[in-house]
Amino acid sequence: MNPWSLANPLAALVLAPLLLGVINRIKALFAGRTGQPLLQAYFDLAKLLKKGAVYSRTTSWVFKAGPVTGLACVTTALFILPLGGCPAPVSFTGDLVLLAYLLGVTRFFTIAAALDTGSAFEGMGASREAQFSVLAEPVFLLCLAALAKITQASPGLPGRDALSLSGLYGGLSLSVWAQGGTALLLASAAMLAVLLTENSRIPVDDPNTHLELTMIHEVMVLDHGGPDLAMILYGASLKLWIFSALLAGILVPVRSGYALVDAGATLAGIFLLAVVVGVIESTMARVRLLRVPQLLAGAGVLAVLALSLSLGR
Amino acid sequence: MEVVLHFLIVVLILTNLRLLGTSRLIACIRVVSVQGVLLGLLPLLVGTGELTTRLWLLSLLTVLVKGMVFPWLLLRALRTANVHREMEPFVGYSTSLLVGLGLLAGSLWMGGRLPLPVPAPSSLVVPLALFTILTGLFAIVSRRKALTQVLGYLVMENGIYAFGLAFARQEPLLVELGVLLDVFMAVFVMGITIFHINREFDHMDADRLSALKD
Asked: Quick check: A178 contacting B, CB < 8 Å?
């Protein structure tokens, strides 16, 4: 293991809450407001950590385990996440499946904690989260499968493992884009839809609404407070970072061989994606709840098309 | 050139899927119009020989007729009929998309197996043609409104046209022009029929015609 590769998860741990700040700033800009400070998410986290937590007498250990497990899984996932061409500290064949299921475990514990409160309102949010993630997860895996197939033939780094995340992203380059650009574009579009769904962003869920009947993620964490809520907020920003890094790794195929240049380009890509998410949130309306599965089915169609194009070559 | 052709074909495949997944009739007509324009660009990109006047004429006529005249005729029919949505199709939209994926997989599988008289300009042209034909056929059998069925017919014809385009340099211009004229007449007549169906029955659900007895 290359000690420098530890910079990847470190950058994520430090910079992830800044993504939320960028998104909020862009939204404020569109609305003509000054907006929160860029570092507001850090201030919120510091404030929440200083508070104590209140637990209802009806909840059990599951409720307390939710935020902890969630943060632990997402942090583990950071260690197999490559930053563009820079390989992750840990990589092995098939770690893309591990990534998908680490995120799955996070979701499972969030849902279990929400159900543990016994509130009908939180149960509703949990049921929606489960429904949408059932649709989003296959799309995510199909995207990664298409990417693996596209980059399979590319030379990339010597001795890379084409079925691990680091090997997969190391194999992407401008020449791969020139050959299979169409399939890569389709996969990126599908990945963007997954990013917006998994992070409860606007066409699927509105992160700003509290106590509204249509919300999904926010409703599940209503009963958490203090350090628990801080862990949930931090975990959510890390999750946003993971998906942004995966998408930026495809869209910014800078593989110069100099680690600093590659990492810098991908970081710029991640923050540009935050800007894009902010623009989407400011210009689009949330789609009706019944239409969300259709949206995800459309993303699935794009992913399948990307996969079949890469298989046909 | 190869990359542009590839990209164009993928966009054409996406227009087909979009047609299956939307309920607004105006959006459907627009999709078919975009498909017509893209199909018109196809003969300029396939093959390696020089661009002859014949090819330019073919391309221009296709864009004009399939991309502009047909949508205009159908939009006029839509305005007189005063309907905007395909309500209650026989197969729902998400299911239609899934069926579309199945059709696409089938076409990709079959496209690689058909023996062709001349080598195709891209490995995707024949699957595209098959997929477009099948999509059109599916739209005809799964939708209720006469207008969507006309669109299905048009898409099916687009598929046959795309198949011909793959070998356009071998095909006489007269045949292509004849086909275009036939389709033009068909759409013209169907536009009038939609208008009359709508005037007589206050709707244009074609499935109720089967209940007619003498």
From this structure: yes
Q: Are B40 and B69 in contact (CB under 8 A)?
A: no
| Alpha helix positions (H), chain A | 7-31, 40-50, 61-78, 95-116, 120-151, 165-171, 174-198, 217-220, 227-251, 259-283, 292-312
Does A312 sit within 8 Å of B108, measured CB to CB?
A: yes
Residue of B nearest to A294 (CA): B94
Name the residue range of residue A110's domain.
3-312
Please give the tally of structural domains in chain A: 1
**Contact pairs from chain A to chain B, CB under 8 Å:** 42
The answer to whether A138 faces chain B, any CB pair under 8 Å, is: no
Q: In B, which residues are within 8 Å of A132 by CB distance?
A: none
Per-residue model confidence as pLDDT tens digits over A204-227: 888 777 666 667 888 888 889 899
The structural domain count of chain B equals: 1
Task: Give helix B93-111 / helix A292-312 axis angle, nearest 10°.
Answer: 0
Question: Cα separation of B37 and B32, whole Å?
Answer: 9
Chain B residue closest in CA terms to A301: B101
Range of the domain at B73: 2-211
Residue A299 has which token pair? 């993303």
A199 neighbors A239 (Cβ within 8 angstroms): yes
Do residues A84 and A266 touch, judged by C-beta distance below 8 A? Answer: yes
Q: In A, which residues are within 8 Å of B94 by CB distance?
A: 293-294, 297
Calpha distance A123→A135 (Å, rounded): 19
Name the band, by pLDDT with cuts 50, 70 and 90, for residue B48. Answer: low
d(CA A298, CA A207): 23
ipTM: 0.79
CA–CA distance, A16 with A12 (Å, rounded to integer)? 5
Distance CA B18, CA B29 (A): 11
Task: Tokens 């895996």: give the residue.
Answer: A141
Q: Which two tokens stand for residue A98?
A: 């591990």
> How many angstroms away from the CA of B7 is the closest CA of chain A?
6
- Binned at pLDDT 50, 70 and 90, residue A178 comes out as confident
Q: Closest Cα to residue A217, out of A228, A233, A231, A230?
A: A233
